[in-house]
Amino acid sequence: MPNRREVLKYYQNMFPDIAERKLKNAIFDHHPSIRYYARYYLSKKNKIEFSDIYREAMKEPIKRKIVGTISGLGETGNKADTSLIISYTTHRTAKIRKLSIRAIAKLAPGNYCDLFRAVIKDNSPRVSREAALALLHCQYQSIFTELWDLFESTDKIHIRKNILLLASNLSKWESIIYYINAIATPDEDIRMIGKDYLNRWLCNFNRSFTKPTNEQKDRIKRAINLHAKTIGEKRKKAIEFNLKTF
After folding, report:
1. Closest C-alpha to 212, from 178, 172, 239, 177
2. How many CB atoms lie within 10 A of CB 245?
3. Which of 13, 43, 163, 209 sits at a 20 to 30 Å CA gap from 59?
4. 157: burial class by Cβ within 10 Å (0-12, 13-18, 19+)?
């Protein structure tokens, strides 16, 4: 990317007549920095609606430019443009599925929570990860029980990791329940991640003083008692001590 950007600068300095054509091609580059660079310098000369250019390109996308076209539309478009992108979320190429989810998440995340929830099951780790990141921009808390059911039923570690990421963004007293349950899973990688999240939860406990609901307290106590051996005596006592303060 830095080399391609330097080449663009070279054309601008040495061959200004050719530079504009090169910059217009560069708005479809696969790297965001190149696209931003090209749009910036093109817009200094003329007022250009880049979103219109990307919309037109989406009608008959060129294979070698599809990555830049989808990404560019996500960067410059509006909510209505998601209709042009959504079909690519099932594309055979994982990179295109991933970038389509990212573009939609930039334009209208709240409208596609169900889509992101479905795509988190994708066989590609990077596509699943992008769906999890997109869910962070939605009100996913209301569907987290369903996501946790998926956590417990799937045998794909990357999906479990991504759901744990979402668990770590739940409220203080909600997230710990899932950390404890994660530590009790048979997969060593997931147990280690669960322990890391729980250790951080205990270290950062005093940074906020929100009170748990009675339901949360009951669920935490049940989880502790059920998985006492796996979470360890030291962590168990620390959690119980913190609960006593409320």
Report:
1. 172
2. 8
3. 43
4. middle
| Residue 117 neighbours by CB under 8 Å, 6+ apart | 131, 135, 140, 143, 146, 147
Tokens of 197: 């999240």
| 186-230: pLDDT as tens digits | 899 999 999 999 999 999 988 888 899 999 999 999 999 999 888
- One-letter identity of residue 130: E
CB-CB neighbours of 106 under 10 Å:
17
Chain segment 104-124, per-residue pLDDT in tens:
999 999 999 999 999 999 999
Vertex 185 angle, CA 181 and 188, to 5°: 125
Q: Which amino acid is at 29?
A: D
